[in-house]
Amino acid sequence: MPQTYAINLEFIGTHYRGWQRQQHDPATIQQTLETAFSKVANEPVEIVASGRTDAGVHASNMLAHFCTHAKREPYNWVRGVNALLPNDIAIRAITPMSDDFHARFSAIARRYRYITLNQVFRPAILYGQVTHEYTPLNLEKMQQACQFLVGTHNFTSFRASQCQSRQPVRHVHFANLIRHGDFIVLDIQADGFLHHMVRNIMGSLFSIGRGEHEPEWINELILAEDRTQASPTAAADGLYFINALYPQNFQQALPNLHLSPVWLNLTE
């Protein structure tokens, strides 16, 4: 009988077409992982993620799972797979789980952070890993706007036209915006996210931060249920998948890892 394992991993998504495997393009996170895991397992391995990230989006703590007949210790899985992965993808931990664990369907919440570097000059060291906004942003007004996002709402105004979700209603548990040095960080958790939802929200928050709209505009957009009324989609560079949450019986088996990119040094 195959064993189910949970995976904690991080990646820089700049050079990938997103998470999901594509028939004619091997440059996806899923395909790259499956190739490496299959070599270590000496059998085909399918990797299932807790969420599907878009092209250019990163992860500091993505949760996924796989099932295999291969017998390996977690340490050997981590060392063996990491030796085969490119430098922009790394396995952080692998944990044996019960057979009923499913990274996607067992998850009860997902959490993202959107990181903006708000300074005059463009970054070099963090190029592609943050979104650069050179205009000074009014953090207080952006924070006020965030509170309209919390709760159960129809997020059609922040939904990409190509979104395949059956319905646009999501429950946002929290949406906090903080300044950390020159970084402005949106920390948002929900029971699920629509295609481009976080990036579309961030685009409208930028408009408020620049003084183009008042904080209440976010609530007006939610009520309008019209994507064309909101701001353009923010860049993928600043978006990180940082965690997935599970029922207690699964959560207690998973390692408690640092969630943010290590360079941000942000207290969880």
What's this model, at a glance?
With 268 residues, the chain is of the alpha+beta class. Helices cover 21% and strands 27% of the residues. It is globular and about 60 Å long.
Mean pLDDT: 95
Described by strand count, sense and barrel closure, the largest sheet is:
10 strands, mixed
**Helical run tally:** 6
Radius of gyration: 19 Å
Tally of strands: 10
Order of helices and strands: EHEEHEEEHEEEHHEH
Beta-sheet strand percentage?
Answer: 25-35%
* Helical fraction: 10-25%
Shape: globular
Distance between the termini: 38 Å
What are the segments in which pLDDT stays under 50 over at least 5 consecutive residues? none
Estimated structural class: alpha+beta
List keywords for this structure.
ten-stranded mixed sheet; globular; 21% helix; alpha+beta; 268 residues
Structure description:
The model has no long low-confidence stretch (mean pLDDT 95). The relative contact order is 0.19. Strands 1, 2, 3, 4, 5, 6, 7, 8, 9 and 10 form a ten-stranded mixed β-sheet that branches. Helix 1 (29-41) packs across helix 2 and helix 3 (139-146) crosses helix 4. Helix content is 21%, strand content 27%. The chain has six helices and ten strands; from the N terminus they run βαββαβββαβββααβα.
